[in-house]
Amino acid sequence: MTSMECMPIIAGSVTRRKTRQVAISWDGNLVTVGGDAPIRIQSMTNTETTDVIATAIQVKQLAQAGSELVRITVNTPEAAAAVPLIREQLDRMDINVPLIGDFHYNGHMLLTNFSACAEALSKYRINPGNVGQGKKRDTQYAQMIEVACKYDKPVRIGVNWGSLDPLLLARIMDENAQRVKPWNAQSLMYEALITSATESALRAQDIGLAADHILLSCKVSGVQDLIALYRELSRRCDYALHLGLTEAGMGSKGIVASTAALSVLLQEGIGDTIRVSLTPEPDGVRTVEVLVAQEILQTMALRAFSPMVISCPGCGRTTSNLFQTLASKIQIYLREQMPVWKLKFRGVENMHVAVMGCIVNGPGESKYANIGISLPGSGESPAAPVFVDGQKICTLRGDDIAESFQEIIEDYVKTRYAPEIPLEQLKKG
User: Fold this and answer.
1) Start and end of every IspG TIM-barrel domain (predicted)?
2) Residue 237 assigned to a binding site
3) Is 146 annotated as a binding residue?
């Protein structure tokens, strides 16, 4: 078949699954999840919640990095008492991000006995496997949902494979024993997770919580497990869904595993909020998980957060580390500038910057970026052509190539994302 007989090749696209939209509000602010809302990024603090200042500072760091919802541990009376103080501190710092309370085991008591905590939180996370055993389970679960109804708070019913309700699991196994062809252990685990989430959601609605106040999650640590689970969960319900690979790990392993699982589901239109659950390196910053989540969404063209740097990996033609240093400097510079730029320049987050290492593909790749530079490789003359919107505007030479290129980017942002200025004027100035 010749190219004349082929159908045109169309870029992939994502059709989002239809879900109920959940409104998360606090002090006149609002973040929507599900429906036609953007896919939101969530993170979680790892500070002691009783340390009000440390927790507020970490929430601030996560929010400024781009986390749109931040979860905190509420596990003791002291932690519950600290929640409204954390909210007050965030308000004083002008950090407008919703706080989510993470409850296990004693959440019914904490939400009931600490009304200021219940009010200060914007959303609750409840694990139905950790709300009590036997007859106490239904009572204690109902108490938590009743508090959510009282204060008009949405709830994420978050099931985890490491803490399934043993009675539910026993029921699922009994039902399986009656099948002509019993399911294997893996399928039983999937069914128990989905049943726990959906039955808990229906129970919450029976108690009085509206369906548009409910989000679901089923967390596992295996990539293929997560994909299989959420495909079936999304088929069975229309609640907003939170995606995350639990216990993903640290470093490249955690990043790759989370990216692999989330990307497949997001491409299929499944997922309304995401979290990348990375184990931080010793003394590492918590905000890495937020940046990874942003990059997953941005590289899949689902959202845009910051200008992207396209750079080559290097080869035997690029023994100089000049292009590596420049790519790193420019990426850091763009991220640092974004808090200011996003207030002034609409659409700047969609900008692509190319930093290429040699003349083989460099000029061509640079032309396809909004602004690009093709640095000399090993043994080549120290001349670096710069391209703006596909046109060469100058060639940089000397020891200050990085500084000069940064100035060109600054000028481009001010002209491209503000009232239009002709390219000729950009060349002159």
Assistant:
1) 31-292
2) no
3) no
Is 420 labelled a binding residue? no
- List own/partner pairs for 88-91 with CB under 8 A and 24 or more apart: 89/52, 89/53, 89/56, 90/56, 90/59, 90/60, 91/27
Per-residue pLDDT of the chain (429 residues; tens, 9 = 90+): 566 678 888 888 899 999 999 999 999 999 999 999 999 999 999 999 999 999 999 999 999 999 999 999 999 999 999 999 999 999 999 999 999 999 999 999 999 999 999 999 999 999 999 999 888 999 999 999 999 999 999 999 999 999 999 999 999 999 999 999 999 999 999 999 999 999 999 999 999 999 999 999 999 999 999 999 999 999 999 999 999 999 888 899 999 999 999 999 999 999 999 999 999 988 889 999 999 999 999 999 999 999 989 888 888 777 567 778 888 988 999 989 998 898 889 899 999 999 988 778 788 888 889 999 988 766 556 688 999 999 999 999 888 888 899 999 999 999 899 654 455 554 544
The answer on whether 268 is annotated among ligand-binding residues is: no
Q: How far is residue 366's CA from residue 390's CA, in Å, rounded to a whole number?
A: 8
Q: How far apart are CA 306 and CA 312, in angstroms?
A: 19
As separate numbers, helices (DSSP H) first and strands (DSSP E) second, the chain gives 14, 17
Residue with tokens 């128990």: 192
Write the DSSP assignment of 50-71 as a string of letters.
Answer: T-HHHHHHHHHHHHHHT-SEEE
User: Residue type at 118?
Assistant: A
Q: How far apart are CA 220 and CA 226, in angstroms?
A: 6
Number of Cβ within 10 Å of residue 236's Cβ equals 12
The whole-angstrom separation of Cα 294 and Cα 285 is: 16
Phi, psi (rounded to 5 degrees) for 178: -85, -10
Residues 6+ apart with CB under 8 A from 142: 203, 207
CB atoms within 10 A of CB 262: 29
